[in-house]
Each structure stands twice: as C-alpha cells, then as structure tokens.
Cytochrome oxidase maturation protein, cbb3-type (Acidihalobacter yilgarnensis), 62 residues
Amino acid sequence: MTILYLLLPLAVFLAILAIVAFIWTVKSGQYDDMDGPPQRMLMDDDDPRLPGNGVRRAKRRP
C-alpha cells in the first residue's frame, strides 16, 4: 500500500510530461502537413517527365 504514495505522484508527473510534450509538438507545427512528407519521399526527383528536369538534363549533356 505504501508503494502507491510513490507510484501515484510518479504517474501524474509522467502524464503531465506527456501532455507538455504533445502541446510542444503541436505548437512547433509537426502535425501541420501530414500528407506531404510521405508523398515527397516516394517522388523521384530525377524523373525526366517532371517539368524542368528534362531541361536540366539536356544542359548537362555535352
């Protein structure tokens, strides 16, 4: 029973810490664009069909 005097304040402290961390991540904008980064990861920047990439490749070739 005496362990509750230690565990309850520890649980409250961890809960407050988690809430503060969540608020900090929301305010820093980490959840603003949830779809963009996964889609940009899959896009190939060297694709010649993308506008502008064909021109750059043509200029590189001698």
About this structure: The longest helix spans residues 4-27. The chain has one domain: 2-59. Residues 2-59 form one domain.
